[in-house]
Amino acid sequence: MSDISLLRAEFPILKQTENGQPLVYLDSAATTQKPQSVIDAITQYYTQENANVHRGVYGLSERATEKYEGAREKVRALLNAKSTQEIIFVRGATEAINLVAATWARDQLQAGDEVLITEMEHHSNIVPWQLLRDQLGIRLNVLRINALGEVCLNAMASMLTPKTKLVSITHMSNALGTINPVKEMIALAHGVGAKVMVDGAQAVAHMKVDVQDLNCDFYAFSGHKTYGPTGIGVLYGKQSLLEAMSPYQAGGDMIYSVTFEKTQYNVLPYKFEAGTPNIAGAIGLGVAVDFLNRVGQDAIGAYEHELMVYATEQLQTIDGLRIIGQAKNKGGVVSFVVEGVHPHDVATLMDQDGIAVRASHHCAMPVMQHFKVPSTIRASLGIYNNFEDIDRLVASVQEAIQMLR
Ligand SMILES: Cc1ncc(COP(=O)(O)O)c(CNc2co[nH]c2=O)c1O
Question: What domain of life (predicted)?
Fold first, then answer.
């Protein structure tokens, strides 16, 4: 692992204090902080390269297009997709999932067909399928989690039927930290002819993702959770599926020719990128990919795992504290509740100590229902966190509890 103190120095926001204390940022599952290289790339685009892409026949536009499409190639390589035609820029994982629901699913599913999700999904991978259930009459099945926050492959196999047309699963839970055995889950789903969407929002920044090795049909992630800017994300889709899908949004750039009688759509990936894209966001994402490649996704995940294990051990010494989510295969997320005190009150007091954690249902209300809690306090890790951050977290939790009890 690269020198963490040198890596921390690349993140300007970490130099500031919060309530008079050095900031300890432990909410990277919500959004990661941004390295100076990403910030500089966006500034450089707007100060030296800004022009609309794909249509200008002048140098500025050609350079902007080269940067934009260069970012797409970086994402292709990061995911090991076969072609840049399989890389669609969207706003984030939410839009990626909604795009598949609005196109592939609406094209392919009919009343009585089944979609399988897990109990640990983020709302962005629950509600789109509920809308289709209510509109198309499909059946939405839920693979339950166990007391540790894990799914069971045998239980999944027993839920798959010839009517299961889509399995949509998170690679890593934002609320529990559970890392799912997605490669095995994909193979099971393909065994009954179902396609698989993987929500990779919490994975790409923490582990190497190879979409060809996984053999997933769709893969989604958000740029802002991978050290990139907000408003840019990626949908990967197998080219054969994307070619057959109806367009998602209609307008400029997604067309080849338009008459009032008929429109011929553009080729991939542009068929799914209507209107002026988030050019600066894509360029920033490309530089974030450079950062991930320089540090190494698996190295980041291994370091965060060490911090997570240390944080779990230290927090578990606190009377009345219960860790929510103790999967054997777990990423850099520690969710917990404390007997007799509300998570929001604890997190509010922790903010006074300069500690930034999330107290919420984390857009995973079914997970909260499963564990019979209204919300949890969640510390989620990024490459810039260190063991001192964990020590300050634990001390602040202890102090908050003493004040509240
Ligand atoms: C697993 C998962 N899927 C999808 C999303 C949606 O991503 P977006 O489209 O970029 O918003 C999130 C966001 N998770 C969180 C956002 O804020 N706190 C979180 O835990 C997520 O954690």
Answer: Bacteria
